[in-house]
Structure formats: structure tokens, C-alpha cells
């Protein structure tokens, strides 16, 4: 059974950023001495920075660790429209253009306190991978190293549930109570290879079931995932491995993004290596917490 989540980390700071279309309020925090090398964790969907808490605390002895919740996830609200004249496609942000732009702005805000000019180590999971790649290739964010864990980065995309929700968005948006909670719990359970503890399950599903806004947000994330696109950046992936050391880690039993994707991504990015973790699904940080911790520690200590 996976270990319970650590809940003693509070995102006690707010970063405000405006694009041409949205106003954002991103909740974040940092751990560790400001003189230490910076390390940033990026979560995916439908998760939050909570999935990194158990790694952030011990690594803060050696790194200045940064955690944040993406817009519409965890503690960070969805971006506020600056104009009513925004198409559904733009609002959906399927290619993560808006989220990546916000992360790039946050990255550069943090970088002002870094004493060395090497950039931060970045560890990204799920669609956090595509965000980190877009921020580097399109927004000029330079990383000291990049570790990608079971990431969304290569097409084609899609799971049967994504398509089902996209085709029946109104039906799913109308679900409430135990029925909707059952959908969310089933979806989260499917991401793990091992049984999640009740405490972990409750923590992961809480943001989506506690309010109408959360329920709408969960449905929106499913529709967004069904429409994911990497066309704008996938052709430039080789530049990433030429600019920084890249490691890819994958759960062997990942039922969301097959493990074969890891090798394809290694070749595209010109990454240094691929680590396949046995007995782990998409939520490798819960399925094999100790093994992932060892792999992260080894990688970061070398860079």
C-alpha cells in the first residue's frame, strides 16, 4: 500500500501574472536555504503539488525546493478571463500554452533570487512534462537538469474516459454526490498500480468533489486531456537534450501512458537515460516511493 501524503507543507505565497487573455493567482512555496541550488517540482493532472510533498521535505536539506499548484489545480484558482470574447478552444488550453506561459513567468520570478546562473533542476510529472518542455523551447527557461516522470509529451493521446467525457460533457458536469465521487475515485485508482491508502485517496480527490467549481474543474481537465496537442514543440525536442542533461523515469505498469513511450521520448529528446521502475503505474511516487526517491537523489547529486 502506498504511503500516506505529507500535509505539513503550506503554499503560503502568491504569484500574480496576467497574459493577454487571463489573470492568474498562483499559490506556491519554497523550502530550504536560499543559497542552495534551486529544485522545482511540477505536477500534472488531475493532481496538485501534494504529490511531491514527501520528496520536497528531505530534499530541502540540499536544495532550495519550489512547489506550486498549476492554475485550476489544488490551491490555485483557474485564470480569470480578461475578455468575454474568448473561444472555448482558447479557454480549454489543450496544448497547455497558457499554463506553460504562467510557469515560465513564475520560473523567471524565482530566478531573481538564484545566485548562480545555471538555472534550476526541474522534475516534472504527467502534463508537467509538456509544460516544462514548452517553457524551455518557447519561453527561454534554461534548466540545470530536467527529469521527466511518466510525462505527457508525445502524441497520440487519449484514454477511453477522456473521449467519453468530451463527448458527454454536459452529462458528466451534471453528476453530483456519491456518483461523481465514484467517478473521480475510480479514475485516480486507475493511475496507481498498488492500492492507495484511504488517506492518500481522500487527499487526491478532495479538490474535485468538495464544490461545484471542483466538479466542473475535473470535467474540464478530462476534456482538455482529450484534446492535448504537442505539434508546436515536438519537432524541436532534440534541442532539449543538447541544452541540458535529461533523464526519463517511467512506471513499468503505467496504464495511462505505456512504458514503451519512454524509449521513444529518450530518442526524441536525446536524453541521457531511461529508468523503468517495476511495480509502479502512472503514480510512481506512491507506488514505489522509495525507489523513485533513490533515482531522484542519484540524478540530482550528479548534476
The N- and C-terminal alpha carbons lie at a distance of 32 Å
**Which stretches are poorly predicted, pLDDT < 50 over at least 5 residues?**
none
- H and E order: EEEHEEHHEHEHHHHHHHEHEHH
Main sheet?
9 strands, mixed
Number of strands: 9
| Helical residue percent band | 40-55%
State the shape: globular
Number of helices: 14
Task: Please characterize this protein's 3D structure.
With 303 residues, the protein is an alpha/beta fold. Helices cover 44% and strands 18% of the residues. It has 14 helices and nine strands. Strands 1, 2, 3, 4, 5, 6, 7, 8 and 9 form a nine-stranded mixed beta sheet that branches. Strand 3, helix 1 (53-59) and strand 4 (64-68) form a beta-alpha-beta unit. The two termini are 32 Å apart.
Describe the protein's topology.
Layout: E1 13-18, E2 22-31, E3 38-42, H1 53-59, E4 64-68, E5 80-81, H2 88-92, H3 97-111, E6 120-126, H4 128-139, E7 143-151, H5 160-167, H6 169-173, H7 177-191, H8 198-209, H9 212-226, H10 231-234, H11 238-243, E8 246-251, H12 260-269, E9 273-277, H13 284-287, H14 289-302
Parallel strand pairs: 3-4, 3-6, 6-7, 7-8, 8-9
Antiparallel strand pairs: 1-2, 2-4, 2-5
Give a summary of the structure in a few sentences:
This protein is α/β, with parallel strands linked by helices. It has 14 helices and nine strands.
Amino acid at each position: 500500500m502506498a504511503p500516506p501524503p505529507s500535509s505539513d507543507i503550506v503554499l503560503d505565497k502568491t504569484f500574480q501574472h496576467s497574459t493577454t487573455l487571463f489573470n492568474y493567482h498562483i499559490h506556491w512555496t519554497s523550502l530550504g536555504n536560499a543559497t542552495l541550488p534551486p529544485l522545482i517540482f511540477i505536477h500534472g493532472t488531475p493532481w496538485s503539488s501534494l504529490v511531491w510533498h514527501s520528496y520536497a521535505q528531505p530534499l530541502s536539506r540540499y536544495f532550495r525546493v519550489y512547489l506550486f499548484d498549476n492554475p485550476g489545480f489544488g490551491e490555485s484558482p483557474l485564470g480569470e478571463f480578461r475578455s468575454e470574447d474568448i473561444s472555448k478552444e482558447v479557454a480549454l488550453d489543450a496544448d497547455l500554452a497558457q499554463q506553460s506561459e504562467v510557469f515560465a513567468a513564475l520560473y523567471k520570478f524565482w530566478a531573481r533570487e538564484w545566485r548562480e546562473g545555471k538555472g534550476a533542476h526541474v522534475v516534472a510529472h504527467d502534463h508537467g512534462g509538456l509544460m516544462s518542455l514548452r517553457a524551455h523551447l518557447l519561453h527561454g527557461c534554461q534548466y540545470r537538469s530536467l527529469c521527466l516522470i511518466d510525462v505527457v509529451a508525445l502524441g497520440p493521446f487519449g484514454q477511453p474516459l477522456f473521449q467519453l467525457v468530451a463527448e458527454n460533457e454536459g452529462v458528466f458536469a451534471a453528476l453530483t454526490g456519491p456518483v461523481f465521487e465514484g467517478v473521480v475515485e475510480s479514475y485516480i485508482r486507475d493511475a496507481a498500480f498498488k492500492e492507495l491508502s484511504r488517506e492518500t485517496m481522500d487527499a487526491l480527490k478532495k479538490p474535485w468533489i468538495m464544490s461545484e467549481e471542483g466538479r466542473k474543474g475535473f470535467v474540464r481537465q478530462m476534456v482538455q486531456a482529450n484534446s492535448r496537442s504537442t505539434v508546436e514543440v515536438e519537432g524541436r525536442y532534440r534541442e532539449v537534450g543538447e541544452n541540458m542533461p535529461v533523464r526519463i523515469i517511467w512506471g513499468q505498469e503505467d496504464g495511462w501512458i505505456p512504458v514503451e513511450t519512454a524509449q521513444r521520448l529518450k530518442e526524441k529528446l536525446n536524453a541521457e537515460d531511461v529508468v523503468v521502475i517495476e511495480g509502479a503505474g502512472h503514480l510512481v511516487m506512491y507506488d514505489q516511493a522509495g525507489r523513485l526517491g533513490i533515482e531522484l537523489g542519484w540524478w540530482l547529486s550528479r548534476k
